[in-house]
Amino acid sequence: MKKTKFLIIIGSLLVGVVSLIIVYLSLILTNVITISQADLEIETGSAYKEYDGTVLTESSYKIKSGVLAKGHTIEMTYTGHQVLAGQAQNTAEVKIVTESGKDVTKSYKITVYPGNLVVGKRKIDIQSGSYQKDYDGTPLTYEVYDIVAGSLISGDKYEVVANTSITDAGS
Q1: For residues 77 and 87, what is the distance between their CA atoms, to the nearest angstrom?
Q2: Is residue 86 within a helix (H) or strand (E), and if so which, with residue range?
Q3: Interstrand relation of 47-50 and 115-120 (parallel, antiparallel or unpaired)
Q4: By C-alpha distance, which of 142, 118, 117 is closest to 129?
């Protein structure tokens, strides 16, 4: 008799648990209960450098708001870059994975605030050469220029367009 009561109790518990699971799944499937995405705001890092002919990237980020679930990690793929003098956004793609590598990105509502990638102009000073001649009625032009401060990057060239000349005696 004791064994029969025990089996009845276990059977009743199993029926109760299965019933609860069925009700819970039915409520989810009919949208009575919904599971919302967790809000996560991420800001990518910013960087600055003077023009040197190489690509500027920045691979840092910080979580502005929100929290990752236990065992979840962020995998960032940075897509922003800047080479020439100017500015670009440090854009990135975000992927959230579990410890086992399962992609759970869809469980989060992710907002990415891109930092700035700024390449500053490289400063060079160019000085025109000096020349003189005796007056002969023809214009004096002298197109010799030298970099007196700063330097060019290997492979870069400069071109000076000057429309200056003098014809009459004087300076």
Answers
A1: 19
A2: strand 86-90
A3: parallel
A4: 142
> Across-strand partners of 43?
62, 113
CA angle 143–161–165, rounded 5-degree value: 55
Q: How far is CA 5 from CA 2, 13, 14, 15, 16, in A?
A: 5, 12, 14, 15, 16
pLDDT, mean of each 10-residue run, the chain (171 residues): 74 80 75 77 97 95 94 95 96 95 94 97 83 76 78 81 70 61
What span, in angstroms and rounded, lies between the C-alpha atoms of 26 and 33? 9
Give the pTM. Answer: 0.67
Give the pair of three-digit tokens for residue 100: 């086992």
Q: What's the pLDDT at 150?
A: 83
